[in-house]
Amino acid sequence: MEKFYRAKFINSLSGIKSANLIGSVNTNGVHNLCIVSSCFHLGANPPLIGMILRPETIDRKRHTLDNLRANKVFTINHVNEKIYQKAHQTSANYNEGVSEFEEVGLTPKILSDFKAPFVKESSVQIACIVREIQKLEINKTFLVVGEIERVILDESKVKDDGHIDVSSSIGVTGLDSYHRTEKITRLSYAKPGLMPKTII
Amino acid sequence: MEKFYRAKFINSLSGIKSANLIGSVNTNGVHNLCIVSSCFHLGANPPLIGMILRPETIDRKRHTLDNLRANKVFTINHVNEKIYQKAHQTSANYNEGVSEFEEVGLTPKILSDFKAPFVKESSVQIACIVREIQKLEINKTFLVVGEIERVILDESKVKDDGHIDVSSSIGVTGLDSYHRTEKITRLSYAKPGLMPKTII
Question: Tell me, what's the ipTM?
Answer without folding.
Answer: 0.95
